What we know:
By secondary structure, this protein is α+β, with helices and mostly antiparallel strands. Helix content is about 35%, strand content about 40%. The chain folds into two domains: about 5-115, Lipocalin, CATH 2.40.128; about 120-160. The strands form two sheets. A four-stranded antiparallel sheet has the order 1-2-3-4, with no helix packed on it. Strands 5-6-7-8 form a four-stranded antiparallel sheet. A hairpin with a 2-residue loop joins strand 1 (about 30-35) and strand 2 (about 40-45). The longest helix is centred in the C-terminal third of the chain and has 24 residues, at about 120-140.
Amino acid sequence: MSKTEQVVLSEIEIATQKAFDDATELKLSGAEVEFTHNNNTIVLKQNAIGKETIFCNGELVSTKWALIQTKSTHYFSQGTTQYKIFVHVVSLLKGKIAVYLYVDRELVAIKGIGVNDTEYENALDKMIWARFFKGTAKFLITLIPYLIIGYAVGYVIGYFF
C-alpha cells in the first residue's frame, strides 16, 4: 500500500469517526440517512430485518436485502450523475452503521448511525489483531500433520526401547 493510499485511508477513517460523533440514533424500527447533492435528496431507509431501500427525490431507485451481510452497495444514476451508496455495518451488537456516498466514483459524504462513543477505534484495533491471529492460525494448522507424525514416531520408539 502506497503512502498516498494510507493517507486517504486514514482520512476516511477519521471522517467515519466524525460521522459517528454526529451520528443519529439507531431505533428498533430501523434507520434513515439523508444526503443532499446537486439538489437531489437521497434517502437510505434500513429496517431492522435487513431491507435497505434507496430513494432519490422521493422515487425508489434501489432495494436490497442485507440480512446476513455486513456490507452492501447500491448503484443508481440521476441524469448524467452516477451514485454509489456503500453501507457498512460496523458493529451488529452496538448497531453502528457507516453510510458512504460516492458521486462519479469520488467519496462525497459519510454519515454514521449508532451510539456516540469511541469504541469504533477499538474495533479497528481488534480487527488488526484478528488479522494477525487469523494468519497465525493458518500457519499452525499446517503444522498439525507433522505433530501427529512426530507423536506416532515417538510412541513407537518409546514402546520398543
